[in-house]
Amino acid sequence: MKNIKLSIAAALTIFLGFSSCIEHEVIPAPVPEVDLFCEFSGNINNTAVQLTQNVAGYYLKTSKAKILLPPPSLSSAIYYSEILSASTNASIKVSLGSLNWDASTLNEPTIAAFNDFHTNALSPVYTTAATSGFEVTYRDGLGNVWVSQQGSTNPQVVLFSNIKQESDATGDYSKFQCNFSCYVYRQDPITLAWDSLPIQNAIFKGWFQR
User: Fold this and answer.
1) CA-CA distance, 123 to 40, in Å (whole number)?
2) Is residue 20 part of a domain?
3) Is the peptide bond before 72 cis (omega within 30 degrees of 0)?
4) pTM for the full model?
5) In this predicted structure, what is the pLDDT of residue 18?
6) What is the model's pLDDT at position 32?
7) % of the chain surpassing 90 pLDDT
8) Is the peptide bond preceding residue 174 cis, with omega within 30 degrees of 0?
9) In a domain, 153, yes or no
């Protein structure tokens, strides 16, 4: 009986020693990642148009324009969201501005200011270059660029909804859905005459990046 006890104790000692040598795998905590998806649908010049992420190479590109001024003047930022493809000319871009902030201490608006700006700009007016409102830019299949106009005599409406702010390691985002109808314009480079075409019942799903 004594020998059996000694054998059990020896086996247990070996097992514990072997167990202590095993390296346990450390599983890192999941890294938050914002789910980003873009899509456009609408009638452009009475033709149904749909641009969808990962279809025909379409993707969304964000950018911004900043005007940095010394205090006491406020600096400003305009945000752009464009659905485009490297394999075709047709694209659509929406622009929204301007977010004003004091750049004397921060080169960028705070996340809170960024979020508040987009949450409060639900039904902006159409303005030239989106300096104080909203602008639409459409590039057709031939590469011609058409832009909405401030004070257009044609009906133009816009409404942002489903706004959601999210952040991950790549940046801070304001996801949105934008419903709009308007006319966009282009000046003929030869005759200098202005042409226009309607964009109706448009739905743009995308995001702005801080």
Assistant:
1) 19
2) no
3) yes
4) 0.84
5) 46
6) 76
7) 82
8) no
9) yes
